[in-house]
Amino acid sequence: MGEDTAGGGTPHIDVEKISSELKIRPEVYVRIVGSFVNSLPGKLNRLNEALSVNDRDQMRMILHEIKGTAGNLRLTTISAPQEVMHVAVKAGEDQKQLSRYFENLNTASQKLVEYFAKMLSANPE
Question: Is residue 123 part of a domain?
C-alpha cells in the first residue's frame, strides 16, 4: 500500500510511490486525489441522509463509489472504515451500529481532507 496512517491515525500519502505504482505522473495523482477529497463531503452527506432513513441500497451504492476510488488511489485511511461499514450494511446490522461506523468513516475522511489541504499548502504547484 502507498498510504500509511502514522501515529494517531494521521494519514500520510506517499505520492511518489503511489503514482509510480499507478504509472501516472505525481501531479496527475495529486489532481485525482484532490478531486476525490473535494467530493467526499457531498458523498458523506448523501450517505448520512441514506443512513437516517435506513436506505440500505443507497448506502451500498455510495459506499461502493467510495470504495472504488479510495482503493484505486491507495487511500487506506478511507478504504478501511468504508469496508467495515459496507460489510455491516450488507449484513443487515442495526442502524445504531451503522451510525457508529459512519462516524468512524466521517472522522477518517475529515483527517484525509485536512492532511491533503496541508500537503497542498506545503507543496504549492
Answer: no
Give the CA angle between residues 85, 88, 90 to the nearest 5°. Answer: 110
Give yes or no for a contact between 67 and 83, defined as CB atoms under 8 angstroms apart. Answer: yes
Whole-model pTM: value is 0.86
Q: Tell me which residue range forms the domain holding 73.
A: 3-118
**Total tally of structural domains belonging to the chain:** 1
State how far the Cα of 70 lies from the Cα of 49, in Å rounded to an integer.
Answer: 21
Query: pLDDT, tens digit, for every residue of 73-124?
Result: 999 889 999 999 999 999 999 999 999 999 999 999 999 999 999 988 887 6
Residues 56 and 104: beta-carbon distance below 8 Å? no
Q: What is the CATH number of the domain that holds 12?
A: 1.20.120.160
What are the distances in angstroms from CA 25 to CA 15, 18, 19, 20, 29? 9, 10, 6, 7, 6
Task: Give pLDDT tens digits for 14-62.
Answer: 999 999 999 999 999 999 999 999 999 999 999 999 999 999 999 999 9
